[in-house]
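ok so for the tutorial part 2 we go from a plain amino acid sequence to predicted structure tokens. step 1 is just haveing the sequence, like this:
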Amino acid sequence: MADNSFGALVQRALDIAERVIDKLSQPDPINKDHRGIGSGDKTEQHQHASPPVLIGKLEIPQGLVDEHKANREQQATHTQDQGGRDRLRLVVETLTLLSVVIATFFAYRALSTATKSADIARVSLESGQRAFVSFVSLSASRSHHTTKEQSHIDILMNAQWENSGDTPAIDVVKRIEASSVLAAEPTFEQFLGPEEAKYPSGTIGPKLRQNSSVVRKPEEEIVGDALSTELGKQWKVDFNTKKVYLWGWVVYRDIFPNTEPHLMAFCSRLIGVTRTKDTFLLNWTSCEAHNCSDRFCPNYEQVIARAYRR
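step 2 — the prediction. this is what the tokens look like for a chain of 310 residues:
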């Protein structure tokens, strides 16, 4: 809106300036039409007295004729002065309008600069204080599961998220999944999760960590015979026979208004197991896909829609 008003003001100033130039470049119609009433003719008429003028049978005294001519000269001079005043007024109006245009231009520039500075300050404030949730680590533990029929050991796996920002992350929705039966990395649909799933939301305070939900898988399905490995040795996964993937995402908002939701995603592949005295450590590497944040994730919109589906 401001750009349109400023453009119209400039166009108006240019139109008036063009009128001034056209006006000043035209010949003076008064000097052209009344050349016979100039000073040279007048001097010559006074030097040579003329006889009375006859109009029909009516004789008009020369004095009346001279007076009539003098009146015409005076009227022409007045008209010429009026034309000069009109041109002067037009010039003054043009200069005034140009001054207004220039002042408006600099005021507009100052307003634009102030607006940009305010936007930069706001973005800097939000960027420095907003919530930043990131994937920190994966953890695993053993759990003995006993029923009347049998007793077996499960592997419990979860992800840890951290809000490193200075303000809370709100409307936090988390998802985690694992598989040992996929032939390759999870597809986008597998990464996204079931369409009918509904996720509870929560909050992660500033400078705090929070675990995801736990994924439970049978120990033999994840680590095989790794526990028979010597202490301190790593059991390497044979990916011709076993592929274990763990993936997930977290969606959240910051507390600042008019900001879009944030997304942090990860995908990891098990590459080995290190035997310790009492348990073991799972060794992971990143998948080729599904490690991204916000709009750097190719399916950002779909993940956000799935997370906040109610």
